Known about the structure:
With 357 residues, the chain is an alpha+beta fold.
Amino acid sequence: xxxxxxxxxxxxxxxxxxxxxxxxxxxxxxxxxxxxxxxxxxxxxxxxxxxxxxxxxxxxxxxxxxxxxxxxxxxxxxxxxxxxxxxxxxxxxxxxxxxxxxxxxxxxxxxxxxxxxxxxxxxxxxxxxxxxxxxxxxxxxxxxxxxxxxxxxxxxxxxxxxxxxxxxxxxxxxxxxxxxxxxxxxxxxxxxxxxxxxxxxxxxxxxxxxxxxxxxxxxxxxxxxxxxxxxxxxxxxxxxxxxxxxxxxxxxxxxxxxxxxxxxxxxxxxxxxxxxxxxxxxxxxxxxxxxxxxxxxxxxxxxxxxxxxxxxxxxxxxxxxxxxxxxxxxxxxxxxxxxxxxxxxxxxxxxxxxxxx
Length: 357
């Protein structure tokens, strides 16, 4: 019997994202991988780089046949307020290492650390995926919420728990209109609603250019659904579509949205739209911090919480970044931000939010 031939050490290289054939290969790998997300796609890295000015590095590993065996997108965040980090993925709630084997996982993790040291960046943050050996892991802060979509509109309504279903029925009885698209009007309505919503929560709004760049980069895999009353937008959400999954990613509502149950109608309408028009089978409600109002809201819709795992490498003697707006460190800043005039919050917010990543 012949002795097994040892495999050579995995070779990690930087992807050439300006090469359309390379990005197509990566997209195919991400789409076929069971843990692939929109945030692993080169389109996400391109949107972040274009809108926020951060450098992006995309690591890939190929097997002995030249096929992709693993990828790791990294956003280089540099902020005077929040510090420096390599993040996978920047401005995302997911990402991390996507690989076919533990050997490839470790090769990508090691290359990420080497890159961080070369760039004088003190930490690497992986938002999802496997945790490399020796890295710090947080599994209790955030939870994800996802469930299958029902087979038709009536079944979807019945799948919502009774109390929340009653709120949706109230919304259906009001004189509300729904639009879906990516036109200038859709974008204007979404940013107006979203900026108001996050100001009311006490957090700075992302640059409008990030939403514009995401819609442009994702094409048919992203759109905006908005609920209007008498021509006024009340609630709006920018959603991403990936491998049969719809993810309402950037959404919010105005002060009047609660009166007219606009947020309730928005998510129900998105479920119907995603199934009928986008052929989706799963609704991913995204992440929320455990024990918060948003987490309870998603549970009210019948979604079960699943712990999310985030891994972090920090250089010896360095301190990890703290960007969670719910941290006691930011209590006074959050309270003050809620009181800012909207025009001022919208002017200052993007300058600050670019550094969050």
